[in-house]
Design a protein that fits this description.
Strand 5, helix 10 (307-318) and strand 6 form a beta-alpha-beta unit. The two termini are 42 Å apart. Helix 4 runs parallel beside helix 7 (195-222) and helix 10 (307-318) runs parallel beside helix 11 (352-367). The protein is globular, with a radius of gyration of 25 Å. 39% of the residues are buried. It is 36% helix and 9% strand. With 527 residues, it is an alpha/beta fold. The strands form three sheets. It has a five-stranded parallel β-sheet, sandwiched between helices.
Length: 527
């Protein structure tokens, strides 16, 4: 929208799929960073601020300096490579050796060389961005997922973590009722449903969360004024093997962020909303006082979409805690050879009806901000988010998704309760805890859930829930605990009855909640 955009340096400093420019890529082989780059970027920000435009900036790491690949092979786990992955989809590196650890993640997070380069980059970039004017938020990485099961050093870190806890393989085998020969083999035996799987995913999520916490410390060290966020993909909430610990993410960033999708086509609902809204409900549970950001707001990849659909997605997301979003203006069509490329056939700004729905939603959300701001409200209903069950039970993620969808249509705001929240006494925020097929639970967490019920809270759980510890050992039967009801399934009738019995009374109710997929939310403003 800026005819003089070249004056702002976007052609040099933006992430450009055709040329791969980025600030990080300008780190020189002598490991110095040209201060004029940050100065030019700050000048760009100042120009945007004068036009009353905010800045959402990604100091991308997935285009790091190519010279570092040969100089520091540890950056790719010791694997020889010729080039960085080609993120554009143009397949330009098809004849070259590359390595990736996940989406937009071409390096090993435990590499000391990589961390030194990132620290140098931040030291050269962030101080020069002070005083850029206007509102600025920095999101640290683009759509990150991270898997690393083969790099020797990463596996050695896992092995060392087990040795530190168990000392000898015999002690580990007694604790696990296993017959492992060495610590080194355990990573290879981390099949679903095994104790090794639980330990591996616990280690893996901790390592990736520690990486992001380190990035945050490094950025703030050089510019404490930064508003920091991140952009993991919403669907990875229930895929722990992708490495993203959304609980620690929400606690870490000023603006808990994501990349979430919606779709006008859905077999069950007017539009596809589940993954985005489940993540927003989760983030608002962990960090209720923080605004949420969707830094790549996906809502249109089709033609013929109505403005009403567009408005529905925006209002739905903002009524569930979203406060900042950016839709991307993609090039129309495919760019590059054959059918490959970074373009899209149907873009948001190519379709006038979509453009109208987007613009009017933005204006109305600002105009009605006083009424949007009280939403989503503090929930009195929580779903138990069991990491142990997520790691060990293949059907838990589906059961949690189904329960969230059914509870969504019962008029009351929905939250989540994690093990960390329960241990911190935050279960007392809620009146009702729903436990959907969470078979695995730590002993102290199950005890806390029982105390919650005995102290007046209500627990609705399926019969297989809370029956085993993460060590796979069957727990003793709970017996009859008042206000703790076990059911065969968490259908909408069971959920509605539990909400009523817990005394949860939203200001507005749907008369026949069992018959319709209609969502109702209410909040009080000035009485």
């Amino acid at each position: 929208a800026l005819p003089n955009y070249r004056d702002y340096g976007f052609n040099i400093l933006g992430d450009d799929f055709n040329n791969g420019f980025s600030c990080f890529r300008n780190l020189q082989p002598d490991e110095t960073f040209d201060p004029r780059i940050a100065a030019r970027l700050r000048q760009s920000w100042e120009g945007l601020a004068k036009q009353n435009l905010a800045v959402a900036f990604n100091p991308t790491l997935h285009y790091f300096p190519p010279w570092a690949l040969g100089k520091y092979p540890g950056i790719t786990g010791g694997t020889p490579v010729d080039a960085l992955p080609d993120w554009s989809g143009l397949n330009r590196n098809r004849d070259k050796r590359t390595k990736r650890y996940g989406a937009f993640f071409p390096f090993a997070i435990d590499s000391p060389s990589l961390r030194r380069l990132v620290s140098t980059y931040y030291q050269g970039l962030f101080p020069g961005l002070r005083g850029g004017g206007g509102f600025q938020v920095v999101w640290m990485m683009n759509e990150p997922t991270y898997t690393n099961t083969k790099d020797p050093h990463y596996r050695k870190l896992f092995e060392d973590s087990l040795k530190a806890r168990y000392k000898t393989i015999n002690r580990l085998n007694r604790a696990w009722s296993a017959d492992h020969k060495t610590f080194a083999e355990i990573a290879d035996k981390a099949a679903p449903g095994t104790r090794a799987r639980y330990e591996w995913l616990t280690f893996h999520q901790d390592q990736v969360a520690s990486w992001f916490e380190w990035l945050g410390r490094e950025a703030r060290k050089h510019n404490p004024e930064l508003i920091l966020s991140n952009k993991p993909m919403a669907w990875t909430l229930l895929h722990p093997e992708q490495g993203i610990d959304f609980e620690r993410e929400a606690e870490l960033w000023d603006v808990p962020g994501c990349d979430a999708g919606r779709s006008p086509g859905n077999a069950d609902y007017a539009f596809g909303w589940q993954k985005a809204i489940m993540l927003f409900d989760f983030q608002k549970s962990v960090a209720p006082d923080k605004p949420l950001g969707d830094h790549e707001y996906h809502y249109i990849h089709e033609s013929g979409v109505s403005p009403e659909y567009v408005r529905a997605t925006y209002f739905h997301s903002y009524l569930r805690g979203l406060r900042m979003s950016q839709f991307w203006v993609w090039a129309t069509g495919k760019i590059g050879e054959g059918k490959t490329g970074a373009g899209m056939r149907h873009t948001a700004w190519q379709q006038p009806r979509v453009a109208w729905g987007t613009a009017t939603s933005a204006l109305d959300l600002r105009r009605l901000a006083r009424y949007v701001a009280p939403f989503p409200g503090r929930p009195e209903v929580a779903l138990y988010f069991s990491k142990a069950s997520l790691y060990l039970a293949g059907d838990y993620a589906q059961a949690l998704s189904r329960a969230h969808a059914e509870a969504n249509f019962l008029d009351a705001p929905i939250g989540f309760a994690t093990d960390r929240m329960i241990r911190a006494g935050k279960l007392s925020r809620y009146r009702l805890l729903i436990v959907p097929d969470a078979e695995f639970v730590h002993h102290d967490v199950r005890d806390a859930i029982e105390r919650f019920a005995k102290d007046g809270g209500r627990v609705l759980l399926t019969r297989k829930s809370l029956t085993h510890g993460p060590d796979l050992v069957k727990l003793s039967a709970q017996g009859d605990v008042p206000r703790m009801e076990r059911v065969d399934s968490l259908d909408r009738a069971a959920l509605a009855g539990a909400i009523d019995e817990a005394g949860i009374m939203p200001a507005v109710r749907i008369v026949s909640p069992g018959k319709h997929h209609v969502e109702c939310r209410s909040a009080q403003v000035d009485g």
